[in-house]
Specification:
The chain contains two helices and 37 strands. The chain is an all-beta fold. It has three domains: 232 residues, no CATH class; 142 residues, Mu homology domain, subdomain B (Immunoglobulin-like), CATH 2.60.40; 99 residues, Macroglobulin (MG2) domain (Immunoglobulin-like), CATH 2.60.40. The strands form ten sheets. Strands 8, 9, 10, 13, 17, 18, 19 and 20 form an eight-stranded antiparallel sheet that branches. Strand 8 and strand 9 form a beta hairpin.
Length: 495
């Protein structure tokens, strides 16, 4: 089941250069969007099956939906887009990133009409408004134009040639590195056999472009579901679904919420829980860094005095020395690595990456506040998502005055009768009112559309779902732009 929880409706384009952003129509000067993404193709292979790895690439098309030119200089010029690929696996309720590439620098813009009518053919140094650029599979895997993601600021879109990978670290902008000494998998999207050879798994292929000084970044990412088949000599990939806007994490069941650090880009926390059937519950958190240059170094989930077991962590980087250790201390389940000031090479969650944090607990879920701390500062943001219910976890309503939303539910607990949700809205906006179970599966949509400012009431009838079990459910309201508010609702029986 697809859900858009805590996120805007991706790809809500309103004509060339206009998007819905935080509930308003915004006309952006620079606005690159994903127009097409082909299924990945193998480009190189190292090792023998099932212990090898395959580098893949794909053809992409992007469109300038803005009102001004997008510079498209050669790699040693500092004003050009960069692009990465990422690959994800959904298996046993776990949505994990199993590969992410470095950045592909761009050097020549075509002037196509794949998205709109291109009225201005450039000389290749810029992409004019309304025009598209297409890059082939081989070009996108060309190591001559690929360098580390760590050299980019995804929020500002800046890249500096001084001391860069292409300059071989020298403090100038003279190109020395041409990719000829790179190993076959270097900088490319490389996926291990063991991450593909998983029965009944689903796979998702994603691309993400970074543009200097672009104000609307959320339409720079797109994905499609693909199938992976071992042919006996290599992996073959085929597309199973059309291109969709937004990050691939949007395809997973669960509750999610977007946040930003001060003057920085977006991060998304996705949470999913499951009843293990033995008196314990599984808690699964996926944290995706879209454009936060601050990075992330610490995640803390409140657990109070519940018993926590089987703590785990996952990232696409399989180096044991780059895993975040997890521990329980002071009523929190915590995963962390060193801050940048302590270790500038610490395995922080950088842009384009997704990390997973998980554990089992002997307590059902309720809404609580998960704290996420930046790597390049001490700033912390909090996400309202399911956590183990304990004395330190609030099960009260979760009004959010700073987002202009309040929400309450009554009666709560509910004994099989109607539950009435009262929503306070400070300003008119497009929003969705829905109910989810503790596993993050949507069980009812109560309203989708635009509402005026004021107080609104909605009725949810648990009996309408027939076999709905007793337990904790979450009524959630999400505004266009990502701000949301939620309240847990306990259903005591199913009469």
């Amino acid at each position: 089941m697809r859900m858009l929880v805590g996120a805007m409706r991706w790809g809500a384009m309103m004509g060339c250069g206009a998007v819905l952003l935080f509930g308003q129509s915004v006309r952006a000067e620079k606005d690159l969007t994903i127009g097409a993404l082909a299924a990945p193709s193998p480009m190189a292979r190292v090792g023998s099956f099932p212990d090898g790895s395959t580098a893949v690439s794909s053809g992409t098309t992007v469109c300038n939906q803005g009102t001004s030119d997008i510079p498209w200089q050669a790699p040693m010029g500092t004003d050009h887009p960069g692009m990465l690929f990422a690959f994800y696996r959904l298996s046993d309720g776990r949505f994990e990133q199993v590969g992410v590439s470095d950045m592909r620098h761009f050097y020549f813009a075509l002037s196509g009409s794949a998205c709109n009518s291109c009225s201005e053919v450039s000389n290749g140094t810029y992409l004019a408004p309304g025009c598209s650029d297409a890059t082939g599979t081989g070009n996108n895997a060309d190591q001559f134009f690929m360098g580390p993601r760590s050299e980019w600021n995804p929020y500002s879109g800046e890249w500096d040639c001084v001391g860069s990978h292409f300059a071989d670290g020298e403090l100038d902008c003279e190109r020395r590195h041409d990719g000829s000494t790179d190993e076959p998998l270097d900088h490319r999207l490389a996926i291990r056999d063991v991450d593909l050879d998983v029965a009944e798994a689903r796979f998702f292929f994603e691309t993400y472009y970074v543009v200097r000084e672009e104000m609307v970044r959320i339409d720079n990412v797109g994905f499609r579901e693909v199938a992976a088949t071992w042919t006996g000599s290599q992996w073959a990939f085929s597309a199973l679904a059309p291109l969709e806007g937004g990050p691939a994490l949007a395809s997973a069941d669960g509750l999610s919420e977007w946040k930003t650090f001060s003057a920085d880009g977006e991060i998304l926390l996705h949470a999913q829980t499951a009843d293990n059937g033995d008196g314990t519950w599984h808690y699964e958190y996926a944290l995706y860094n879209l454009a936060a240059h601050s990075g992330v170094r610490r995640v803390a989930v409140p657990v109070g005095d519940v018993v926590v077991s089987d703590m785990g962590f996952h990232s696409a980087d399989t180096d044991p020395l780059r895993q975040w250790p997890g521990s329980v201390s002071g009523g929190e389940a915590v995963w962390e690595t060193d801050a940048e000031v302590v270790d500038p090479n610490a395995p922080a969650l950088l842009f384009g990456e997704l990390f997973n944090y998980r554990f089992d607990a002997d307590s059902p879920p309720s809404l609580g506040s998960v704290a996420v701390q930046a790597w390049r500062s001490n700033e912390t943001v909090s996400f309202s998502v399911p956590v183990p219910n304990s004395e330190t976890t609030s099960v009260a309503d979760f009004p959010s005055p700073e987002t202009g939303l309040t929400l309450s539910a009554a009666p709560n607990p509910a004994t099989g009768s109607d539950v009435f949700l009262t929503l306070g809205l400070a300003a008119p906006n497009d929003l969705t009112v829905a109910v989810f179970n503790a596993s993050g599966k949507r069980v009812s949509v109560l309203y989708e559309g635009r509402l005026a400012a004021g107080v609104h009431r909605f009725r949810w009838d648990p009996r309408a779902h027939g076999t709905i079990p007793a337990g904790v459910y979450f009524a959630r309201v999400v505004q266009m732009g990502g701000d949301g508010v939620a309240v847990p609702v306990t259903v005591l029986n199913k009469r």
